[in-house]
Amino acid sequence: QLGLVLNPDDWFIERADIPEAGTSERIIMSNVRCTEEDHDITECRAERLPHIENSCDHNQDVGLRCYEPHWAGVRLGVLAERTDLQYITVEKAGLLDYTTNEFKPAVQVDLYHHSFDSVRVVDNVQDGLGVVYADIYSGTTNIVRNSEFSNNRGSGVAFKQLGLKITGSTIENNKIAGVRLGVLAERTDLQYITVEKAGLLDYTTNEFKPAVQVDLYHHSFDSVRVVDNVQDGLGVVYADIYSGTTNIVRNSEFSNNR
Question: Mean pLDDT over all residues of the chain?
Fold first, then answer.
């Protein structure tokens, strides 16, 4: 009704954080009960004036944090030809997918066989760059170079299955993680990138996540700086010791992490 959307990962406001505006106003509805079919809160079942004098007070207020709707950002589908993105900025993007109740990445690549150079993906609602699959057989180089992924409310870069090279890029101030590699991620070479000021509180475990989280390690990190983060710099859950590849971190820095 207000033209706003609810972020399933960031919607609840603690009682102490509810703005003072409205906490002294007259209560006009109590015991509000809406169903999935209701589209107007004023028409939901509820107790109304003048029958709520002793029903509730402002100590029972509930706070909801709503987001302004954002544009979808950029999506490269499975059938997209190889694309070279250069010198573009993607910001304030992230569309709510009502089928999954999740926000989409600002730049979503369904099948990565592209080249990103000097791309800025900043200040977005969810992940900056999200990759589903990568074309690891085409012979092309799947590369991101000289780019920035910062101040996104999800992760800077997130992928489930990928053969990707990131070089000369900055990844910082993202809310969840700088880089998130899923269990199905293909071997990835990270080079010359910086990840800083990352780490999200996981409310299910009440612990902060690492700045770079790798669910299954069979990658190569070279000249990577992971500094000034809220929790661990690099966190590895499992390592692939049977693939025949070298799981290696070289010439890198992990410092000033809490």
Answer: 81
